[in-house]
Description:
40% of the residues lie in helices and 16% in strands. β1, α1 and β2 form a beta-alpha-beta unit. The chain is globular and about 55 Å long. The chain has helices spanning 13-24, 41-51, 67-77, 93-96, 98-118, 153-172, 194-203, 223-234, 271-282, 306-312, 320-335, and strands spanning 4-8, 28-33, 57-61, 81-84, 124-129, 176-181, 184-185, 208-211, 217-218, 221-222, 258-263, 269-270, 288-291. It has eleven helices and 13 strands. Strands 3-2-1-4-5-6-11 form a seven-stranded parallel sheet, sandwiched between helices. Strands 7-10 form a two-stranded parallel ribbon. The protein has a two-stranded parallel sheet with strand order 8-13. The chain is of the alpha/beta class.
Amino acid sequence: MPRHYLVTGAAGFIGMHTAERLLQRGDTVVGLDNLNDYYDPALKLGRLEVLKQYPGFRFIKGDIGDRELMAKLFAQEQFFGVVHLAAQAGVRYSVTNPHSYADCNLTGFLNVLEGCRHNQVGHLVYASSSSVYGGNEKMPFSEADSVDHPVSLYAATKRANELMAHSYSHLYNLPVTGLRFFTVYGPWGRPDQSLFLFVSAMLNNEPIKVFNKGKMRRDFTYIDDIVEGVIRVLDKPATPDAGFDPQNPLPHTSRAPYRIFNIGNSDPVPLTDFITAIETSLDMAAQKTFLPLQAGDVTETFADTRALDAWVGFKPATTVNEGVARFVAWYRSYYGR
């Protein structure tokens, strides 16, 4: 039977791909997005054009921070499930624009939780982030690790989302699952992300900015793998952990129907190797400007995904060479380059 879902941030990178997967399998989707100008809205409109090809899709322009809009939307639609991907994104942007993160990532998320609570939504899946691991140096990052030392406000809001979700799960028996995404990339990606920035600069014969002098490693995760994880988790609502020990509580499970999972490739790649993959796909060398580490950045990310694999039988596996080549092919096609 087709199911009715809300996807917030549907005009965003992960939102578009997730909504399309749901539509392809026959579900109906209401996509909500405020189409803000954090980056070029034309790309967001392009993503929506893809989704509008499906008869089961309906778009609503609106802000998750609008309490009245959200209450009305949930009451009218009676969603089977919600995939909450809307957020003010960007670690570096949060250093200079903190209030937008509080408005969207905190107040907006509260409105989503309230909508789910009052309308018996069967499962809320929401985007957290690998940034919650902050200054942790133990690798790989495990969901069982402490995440109490964020190094950016963006990371702090994502951790706050996890705590808010737990309170609602505990109080109202609401099944909630948080997904900590690791450096997502691929076709239709965000223009503020490194892959998009590097390809654009190289094709314009401009130097690329390489932070921390290239001494960084990232667990780059291809968009199709991210979406596969999202869909599988969505289809398996969180349940209470029968083995939860309140004497030694782990942060990613609970007596409530609450779960947190990493979704990453579990294969950290040096930034220099990532740039090499781009150079190979474009068949050109990059001009590099080496810069210091930016405020809020971390030097390495590495996902332990054993919990995800045990829960839904899936772990990402797309290599950087494959993923970068697919992005470059999309970029050339979309921008006529």
